[in-house]
Design goal:
Elements lengths: L9 H4 L22 E5 L3 E7 L8 E6 L2 E10 L14 E10 L10 E5 L2 E7 L18
Antiparallel strand pairs: 1-2, 2-7, 3-4, 4-5, 6-7
């Protein structure tokens, strides 16, 4: 009887998630990725997003039609040229979050700061100015 030859590294060469996702619903967001806190103060809102391992150059925020979208990209690849590779893994990915901040907020109103893997965004509250009611005259025929 022939038995397939197995190596010590065979368990590491198989995909541990093979077949695991086939019976699962659509993937959900990773709870530790872009963990966000939103705090309200008297002047506006403070949004604090944890982005460990991301560089400032790979983090972007844009405002479009009242929606603030924060996107972060990362890619990691190590260059080690010592020895023969049995397995080499790389990671690259992108994640984003969206927040409705209001149609009357403009880009110039929003302040953002990235420091030590934490993105802090300040969004001011816009106070609606009451509209002055204009007197309208109705023409009377006759």
């Amino acid at each position: 009887m022939l038995v397939p030859r197995r190596s010590l590294f065979d368990p590491f060469m198989t995909d541990p998630f093979e077949g695991f996702f086939s019976n699962m619903p659509a993937p959900q967001a990773t709870p530790n990725l872009m963990r966000t806190d939103i705090r309200e103060n008297e002047n506006g809102y403070e949004i604090v997003i944890d982005l460990p391992g991301f560089d400032k150059e790979n983090v972007a925020a844009e405002l479009k039609e009242g929606v603030l979208k924060v996107t972060a990209k990362t890619s990691s690849e190590t260059e080690e040229n010592t020895g023969t590779y049995l397995r080499r893994e790389r990671f690259s990915g992108q994640c984003s979050r969206q927040f409705y901040v209001g149609d009357d907020i403009e880009e110039a109103d929003i302040k953002a700061k990235f420091d030590n893997g934490t993105l802090q965004i300040s969004v001011p509250k816009k106070v609606e100015q009451p509209k002055l009611e204009e007197a309208r005259t109705i023409s009377i025929e006759g």
